[in-house]
Amino acid sequence: MVRLEDYGTWEEALRRLGETREALLALLREADPAWLFAPLREGAWTPLMVAEHVALVEDSTARVLRRLRRLAAGESLPPVPFVPGEVKDGKPQAPEGVRPKGGLSLEEVLAFLAKARAFLLEEAAKADPQHPATFPHPFFGELTALGWVRAAAYHEAHHLRALQASLAR
């Protein structure tokens, strides 16, 4: 069971994001190119697709932080339909909007990771981690800005551990 609270305060969650990003980038840059383009197991994503997915999730998280900031400022925003997350064989499945397309080079994935992280940090700098406004996460339910940053920290760490384990095999 994932406990997002374990990812700490706003500052601690952002620090963790920095640490995992550094490790993810090193892993991708130092890996054998053949591994980067090979599915992790039959029917699974490649390591580059996993990294693309991490960037897509961060981009989405930044958009959620922006929405929460606008709500906190009193803007009236149209509701967004909530689609609960799907679990298959005990594993959460990526919602359609954050599923990687694949076909990107290492350089393209690294650039996408950098762009998504910059967007996330830009929105995080403007966010109020103490504001009670929430937005539903497909797997964790209603989350505040702090909850979304913690979820992003968990998400990248989860995929980093899986990639490291795959590389060790």
Q: Overview of this structure, please?
A:
The structure is a single chain. This protein is mainly α. The chain has helices at 10-30, 33-36, 47-72, 106-126, 145-168, and strands at 86-88, 91-93, 135-137, 141-143. It is 57% helix and 7% strand. The strands form two sheets. A two-stranded antiparallel ribbon has the order 1-2. It has a two-stranded antiparallel sheet with strand order 3-4. A hairpin with a 2-residue loop joins strand 1 (86-88) and strand 2. It is globular and about 50 Å long. The mean pLDDT is 96.
Secondary structure elements and pairings:
Elements: H1 10-30, H2 33-36, H3 47-72, E1 86-88, E2 91-93, H4 106-126, E3 135-137, E4 141-143, H5 145-168
Antiparallel strand pairs: 1-2, 3-4
